[in-house]
Write a structure and sequence with these properties.
The complex is a heterodimer of chains A (about 400) and B (about 250).
Chain A: H1 3-12, E1 42-43, E2 49-50, E3 52-56, H2 83-95, E4 101-105, H3 112-129, E5 135-139, H4 146-155, E6 158-160, H5 168-172, H6 180-196, E7 204-210, H7 217-230, E8 235-240, H8 257-272, H9 294-301, E9 308-309, H10 315-318, H11 326-335, H12 344-349, H13 354-357, E10 361-362, H14 371-383
Parallel strand pairs in A: 3-4, 4-5, 5-6, 6-7, 7-8, 9-10
Antiparallel strand pairs in A: 1-2
Helix pairs in contact in A: 2-3, 3-4, 4-6, 7-8
Chain B: H1 2-6, H2 13-17, H3 34-45, H4 54-66, H5 74-88, H6 90-94, H7 99-121, E1 124-129, E2 132-138, H8 146-156, E3 161-166, E4 183-188, E5 191-196, H9 209-220, H10 228-234
Parallel strand pairs in B: 2-3
Antiparallel strand pairs in B: 1-2, 3-4, 4-5
Helix pairs in contact in B: 4-7, 5-7
The chains are: A alpha/beta (about 400), B alpha+beta (about 250).
């Protein structure tokens, strides 16, 4: 098999992995720099950006993941890059400014240890032979031994172990051979301990396969919140399940991109807006409403908190208003020191999406939006008996929004 | 500060030449140091402690990028905003409360975005010959960012000389060189220079890696998620000729 054929095969095998060379500060104690913000080098017809050379070392795999195009039982052409081949190919792409860094994953060929050795060797060639000091994201193979993990952490800007499902029971529906607690969660904890020693400037991430195990959004977000607080993950990514022909899940419906989008919105609320799991409301089936963004849903379920006076509300209160993000909230609080907001235009200038925010704010004690919107707000008020509620509205008793993380 | 000291407007040389103020006396800012101006300003209008703050640096950065926005009124807008900063304070301007401040920050953002996209979308081809090692790319910029982009690539490819081949549009109002339809710009001692294509120290390269890239690009596409509108939003049509895969977004 020639290089072009290998590239086509091993590139396609990695396309469902989600990654971004962002969300990290430059440099780090390990001396492995990482970009401050992502530089996108191209965009695919599906709208996703290409910033990293995302590829598998090999698509030979011993695992049986029911959703995976590389599963052991599937009859497909198998190929592998040698570490020299892959490092050289990546470097040529990098020199020509096609990509910003490398995202290297792999099927599990022979054993997790053998696979990790190949991955590490590729990274070592780049770091030591070619003196490449840019961004490298390495996948940690579930079940890999501590010494491999430590070496990968030393070489990489970021590492990740794919969690795939929110609980052990859900993972069992996707693979009979993967061990949720020991193979995945324990590895994440080891990485976290190594990271605390000053390695990994871009931190540790993970990825959920959304919609393949029949899991609810509430279950995914509960685990997500736990991963952020308990294991110190930098980012959690979500990949909407797409059925692959020749796998046990081929007849299953794909998860919608909108569902993935709503999960990302909640993820941003957790990380940048100070929301907690209990602030998120779910439908009866434990999923997020697809027709309403989670922040607007929060505001509608907590109308007792609104309208907020923009000249008095704190930064964290402003962040709860739909249409106001961290940047505009910061600007409002900063400008207020010497200035009093009087008009919606002034608010708009700070970057607020006035159309969304206006029903939930007052400027100098008055609504400044059209009567129609205020009327709409009153309709929303009628639909919720918020006077009796101190807590966010939880639509059904089994919701994870009621349970502690 | 100069505007307030001299009770006038800051204008670019060309702007100034085109106005009815042409006969008035102009001040050459390049002959003054910032510290001198500051000292004189503080003598008349009071201290400028905020000038050393982090916020002032944010404003300075925004001014830096906004001054590269190609528009006849760019310097006029910047001086208006700086006057507002002096009068109402930095927070007022950084909060983008006034229309002028918002407009200036928007311009700054657009320039940054163009530079950011250029850093991502320009493809380079390596050439090595007896004259040295060169990385050659093609680009056309809407704003004055060629030096920023050249410096970015010079940092990324140490030991290589970066050349960007640009169309007539890009450098049409650079004053120092008479330009042909296509020129190349490059850095020499940190200054942007231009040269005609006939005088380049290498032959314009082709690159066999385009095929490998297109193979990889095609392998990454997920049919079930097709969203051409989103792709076109992030990779607008004007960049399609820069990248080999541009025709796939048509």
């Amino acid at each position: 098999m020639n290089l072009v054929q290998k590239l086509s095969l091993l590139g396609a095998a990695a396309k469902y992995d989600v990654c971004a060379a962002s969300g990290c500060s430059s440099g780090g104690l390990s001396g492995m720099p990482s970009p401050r913000s992502g530089v996108c080098h191209s965009f695919l017809p599906d709208g996703r950006c290409i910033s990293l050379f995302k590829v598998l070392q090999t698509n030979s795999c011993q695992k049986d993941c029911f959703y995976c195009p590389n599963r052991v039982q599937r009859d497909i052409p198998r190929a592998s890059f040698t570490p020299e081949e892959l490092a050289g190919l990546f470097l040529e792409f990098y020199r020509r400014n096609y990509v910003e860094g490398l995202f290297l994953s792999s099927g599990i060929c022979k054993s997790p240890g053998d696979t990790m050795e190949q991955i590490i060797k590729t990274a070592e060639i780049l770091r030591y032979r070619y003196r490449f000091n840019g961004y490298i994201h390495l996948k940690i193979i579930p079940g890999a031994k501590p010494e491999y993990i430590e070496q990968a952490v030393r070489l990489a800007s970021r590492v990740s172990v794919n969690i795939e499902a929110p609980t052990a029971a859900h993972l069992q529906k996707l693979s009979k051979l993967k061990d949720f607690n020991d193979g995945i969660i324990n590895r994440m904890k080891w990485i976290n301990r190594l990271q605390n020693g000053g390695l990994l400037p871009a931190g540790q991430t993970t990825q959920f396969m959304v919609g393949a195990a029949g899991e609810s959004d509430a279950a995914i977000l509960k685990t997500t919140s736990g991963l952020y607080h308990g294991i110190g993950l930098k980012r959690v990514y979500f990949s909407a399940f797409q059925p692959v022909a020749g796998t046990p899940l081929e007849a299953m419906s794909p998860a919608t991109v909108l569902r993935e989008h709503r999960l990302y919105q909640c993820d941003f609320l957790f990380r940048l807006y100070g929301f907690k799991l209990t602030d998120i409301s779910f439908n009866q089936d434990g999923n997020l409403p697809e027709d309403l963004d989670p922040k607007l849903n929060y505001a509608l379920n907590n109308l007792q908190l609104f309208p907020l006076e923009v000249n008095k509300a704190s930064y964290s209160e402003l962040l709860r208003v739909p249409g106001i993000g961290p940047a505009s909230a910061r600007r409002i609080v900063s400008a207020r020191k010497q200035f009093k907001f009087n008009t919606l235009d002034e608010l708009k200038n700070t970057g607020v999406v006035v159309k969304r925010a206006s029903p939930f704010v007052q400027i100098n004690g008055r609504y400044r939006e059209s009567y129609k919107l205020v009327q709409q707000l009153e309709l929303w008020r009628d639909s919720v008996d918020y006077s009796s509620q101190r807590q966010p509205r939880v639509i059904f008793q089994g919701s994870h929004a009621l349970t502690s993380v | 500060m100069l505007s307030r000291l001299y009770n006038g407007l800051c204008m670019h040389k060309r702007e100034f030449a085109e106005t009815i103020l042409n006969g008035s006396k102009a001040i050459d800012c390049d002959t003054m140091s910032l510290e001198d101006i500051r000292e004189r300003y503080e003598q008349i209008h009071g201290t400028l402690e905020w000038f050393n703050s982090k916020k002032a640096r944010i404003l300075a950065e925004a001014v830096f990028y906004a001054s590269r926005y190609r528009s006849p009124d760019r310097y006029r807008l910047i001086s208006k905003v700086l006057l507002q900063a002096l009068e109402y304070g930095l927070d007022y301007v950084l909060g983008r409360v006034s229309k002028d401040a918002r407009s200036m920050f928007n311009r700054s953002r657009r320039v940054c975005m163009e530079a950011h996209r250029a850093n991502g979308f320009i493809r380079l081809s390596p050439v090595e010959n007896a004259n040295g090692r060169f990385m050659v790319g093609k680009a056309d910029f809407q704003h004055d960012i060629s030096d920023l982009v050249l410096r970015y690539f010079a940092r990324r490819h140490r030991g290589w000389k970066i050349y960007l081949i640009t169309g007539n549009k890009i450098n049409a109002d650079i004053e120092q060189t008479a330009l042909t339809a296509q020129t190349a710009c490059y850095l020499e001692n940190s200054v942007v220079k231009t040269a005609s294509l006939a005088n380049l120290p290498f032959d314009p390269p082709g690159d066999e890696f385009d095929l490998l890239w297109e193979t990889y690009y095609e392998s990454q596409y997920i049919e079930g998620r097709k969203n051409l509108a989103l792709a076109r939003k992030h990779l607008p049509q004007k960049y399609w000729s820069w990248v080999p895969e541009g025709n796939k977004l048509k």
